[in-house]
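User: quick one, fold this
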Amino acid sequence: MKKLCYISSMNIRTLSEEKTDYETDALPVALYPERMIKNERGGHGYYGRVINRGSFDIETIASDLVVAGSRRSKTQIIEDWHETCAAIIDRLINGCTVEAEYFNFSLQVKGLFEGQGDKYQKGRNSIELRTRPSEKLKQILADLDCKIAQGNTHRPLIASVYDAVSKTEDRVLTQGGFAEIRGDNIRLYGTDESVGVYFVPEDTGLETIKLSEREIVSSQPGTLRCIVPDSLVKGGCYRVRIVTQYMRTTKARKEPLSCMSAAFLTIQQAFTTED
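Assistant:
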């Protein structure tokens, strides 16, 4: 397969801590058993899921470009990006569609109106961004291959984090409340000291918090329930990280595996009767 020049020179050291068979010309995919739908032979097949190698901001992308040989400095790349985004947003909020090289952007209004004379109401109506791939990006995706990561069928994966107090998913966590982490193979298992649930802050100046055993309510392969620590900083943004040696047998895998929630969760103070 022909190497994709737009990513082959990127600094893959910034991608994640995972060291599995990464290739720059193939999308890393893990297979998971599909228990509900049977295949043509009457057995259960597998569905593919892209291996999440982390979420990165524009500073990381700018560093990638510098390593790849960009003539601009990291600061200049970031400034150019912010100016470009501001110009795109200005066009969008004035009703324009922006057709970029790889993506097409436009805004759309959601929610029903009661009549021709009705007005836009926040809460009932909302404005959302619509993103569509350009023909050029469609061709790139059509040419892209997938690398099936062997042995990754039992890797842990966090699908969502539910806050029982606010009854929201992947948005907030409430100090002292209960959280339900949903995913695959996330049961806490093994004797390695790193096994556990961590709250990793977006702000590097804040401390990463590991839950104690008494803060773990229950731990199952698909669901983990825990208490949200009061020590998390109100207004701070955290991601949930799980480290486990679980491998669907009575044996623990030798090397712990970890997974991280895709969403950053904002910490809110517990509700009171006055609220």
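User: anything notable?
Assistant: The longest helix spans residues 74-92.
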